[in-house]
Design goal:
Number of strands: 9
CATH superfamily: NADH Oxidase
Distance between the termini: 42 Å
Order of helices and strands: HEHHEEEEEHHEHHEHE
Number of domains: 1
Number of helices: 8
Structural class: alpha+beta
Helix content: 25-40%
Shape: globular
CATH architecture: 3-Layer(aba) Sandwich
Largest sheet: 7 strands, antiparallel
CATH class: Alpha Beta
Radius of gyration: 18 Å
Strand order of the largest sheet: 1-6-5-4-7-9-8
Strand content: 15-25%
Length: 247
């Protein structure tokens, strides 16, 4: 047990100065987001400049922040979903050389190793199914319908039924090489920290629109990887968070 605790410590930085990372070998950086078919039909989201939601004072949101496991059957609006996506992975700036982005959440070295998948149950103007957020375009990519979505996502989260009752389930994957390219062995601790930044922004953004969420770490790795269609090696699920309207 004590051996495993080393992952949480900063000893790997002692080796970082001499580590031959991919960046130091002058290898090209990985793409800022996963590619998608050029002929794919993308779904427009509400632009951040047009948001009319999310105006609850931050002090009030922080005071009332808690995990919610009970959701009403109300749908999220497309604007509310747009706001949540922008709050958790929205891009404010792409560097002139296209090598990094500045987003609404911090990430070590601006590496932002995550992709955001959505299992949609009840969002206005969206058919149920699996989607991926494209932060550079601020659009959605529809991937496929999902049979028995509520049952599958609950099973993937170790039979936690409340997950399947949500209006939408956020599933974050990581592509570790995005961070490893610059930081090598240090990257993995940073990825774990970055996941917390993203999910906390989801909590605060939910509180600003009268919704609730609950961070889920207890999921079945193989089932959730399969559900969102990733290989489990170069990309895999690291965090899950159901979102729904609350009483």
């Amino acid at each position: 047990m004590k051996e495993q605790r080393k992952f949480l410590k900063a000893y790997r930085w002692d080796r970082f100065a001499s580590e031959q990372t991919a960046q130091r070998q002058h290898l090209p950086p990985p793409p800022l987001q996963k590619p998608y078919p050029t002929q794919a039909e993308l779904i427009d989201l509400v632009a951040p400049d047009d948001f009319q939601v999310g105006k609850t004072p931050l002090l009030e949101v922080i005071r009332s922040r808690k995990s919610h496991r009970a959701y009403t059957q109300a749908s999220l609006s497309l604007e509310e979903l747009s706001f949540l996506l922008w709050a958790t992975q929205g891009i404010r700036e792409v560097s002139p050389d296209g090598k990094y982005t500045k987003r609404t959440v911090p990430s070590g070295g601006a590496r932002h190793s995550f992709e955001t998948y959505l299992l949609v149950n009840r969002v206005e103007r969206l058919a149920p199914g699996l989607y991926r957020y494209l932060p550079i375009e601020h659009k959605l990519l529809f991937l496929r319908p999902v049979d028995n979505l509520a049952e599958q996502v609950s099973a993937g989260c170790r039979d936690q039924k409340f997950v399947g009752n949500a209006a939408v389930v956020f599933v974050w994957t990581t592509l570790p090489y995005r961070a490893e390219w610059r930081y090598g062995l240090v990257a993995h601790k940073m990825i774990a920290m970055d996941a917390g930044h993203v999910c906390q922004n989801l909590y605060l953004a939910c509180g600003a629109i009268g919704a609730g969420t609950c961070a889920v770490d207890a999921y079945n790795q193989d089932k959730m990887d399969a559900l969102v269609g990733v290989d489990g090696e170069d990309e895999f699920v690291v965090y899950v968070a159901p979102v729904g309207k609350i009483e």
